[in-house]
Amino acid sequence: MNRNLYRAFLLITFLALNGLILYGISSIWSYLNTGADRKTMLHLPAQLTSNYLPKVNWSPLKNEGRPMELQTLQELERDYIKAWYVKNNALETNNHYGINDYYTDSARVKLYQVLDHNKANNISVKTTTIEHNPILNFYSADGKLAVLTDKNIQIQEQVLVNNTSLLKRNYESSFQTMLLLEDGFWRVRHLVEIENTPVAVSTDQSIPQTVLSEIRDIKGLNYYPRENPWNMFGKHFQDTVIDNDFSKIKSLGLNSIRIFIPYEGFGKATVDTDKMSQLLRTMDLASKNKLKVTVTLFDFYGDYSLADWTLTHRHAEKIITALKDHKALQAWDIKNEPDLDFKSRGKENVLSWLGQMVKEIRKWDNNTPITIGWSNPEAALNLSTELDFISFHYYRKPKDFLASYNALQDAINNKPIVLQEYGYSSYDGIWNAYMGSEEDQANYYKEMQTMITNAKLPFLLWTLYDFTEVPDNVVGRLPWRKSQQQHFGILDNQGNLKPAYQEIIK
Fold it and tell me: Do the Cβ atoms of 379 and 341 come closer than 8 Å?
């Protein structure tokens, strides 16, 4: 009995060991007969290209040597742009990470020398390229060598020493580049700068005065639907509700609205096509109801770092090129209250990003006025020469309004000014010591509208409805802040007119 059990155990063990050996051999054979997956072969993350998306404008192919196929050109562009990305990343971190994958042996030597020198001296270079304009000069007959000239690359650069900014510059540079096809992908063999020119700051705007005259006629409000404020696109989108609201706004004697496009909610660099369709539908409904629209971009965005610039450019480009010819479009508002990010993100960083975004938008649409929704009159002096009209928000006491407005008007050389947000909460609950009221709100508007009318100041009040819910990411979780924010409407949360309405329609 024991002898049979022992024999059975040996047989099972023998078969199991042979099975494992065969499985191991077959796995090795399968691996050796399958080309290495490039994403696993390289050290860099698979999503690399989603982190860096500069504009690439190829000149028509008229190169010497072998004609280049479209697929090969796309592969060449992909690897060439990745080479720039890893170089930019290496200069910021002084880390060799990724250099081996996109530069040949000889090209790495100089890069390593620069990185090692910078690391030893606590030097860091933050840089990004905005736009590339490559020309293919030569493509070898064997398909393994390509030479290109990249003209007028737009480069933003910041040099830091011991984490202190020493130099910041915006310039255009041209490079001659040789790439070799190795292991199935293109590596940079030579990258030689052949020209370097500072970018001149231009304050010239070609917006027609007839367009700017429409800005001076703005009488409107900031709009969100009653049921889903700060979240009007996506699964909550209801065009019938929006249509009815727009009809109501027009019936109040108003002619304009301001809406908001959340950067992350719309898909960042890869704009959500469904939400884009909903945005276009919203614009159509505004046109149907004879309302003009200020589109505020980058709501809830707060990065501003150079590494993020090309992603925000691709986001803005897709929205702007889709809407730029829409007859309801009145203005582009780049960002809502970016001055509130000065402390946490650095004023210089925020203003650099905003200034570059103005330039980029003008490339895609030079017919629509551009503004920025500053949180107060004093902040509205920033970038005033670059903008087509000046927008500011005001939530202080009415008695101080005219002094603040007049000071801003004196400083900006006759450009149109829009009071883009203002209002008063009618909240009268415990978190306001039961001291608020709809009557107080009406008195606020009576005083403000008198000054606005006398100054012939365009306005966009905050807002149409009282809201039952306010998301935490708008004003935080504190109940006294959320409760106040819920009661800024000139209509209550049932759609009934509040007394403030009578002061606005006069």
Answer: no
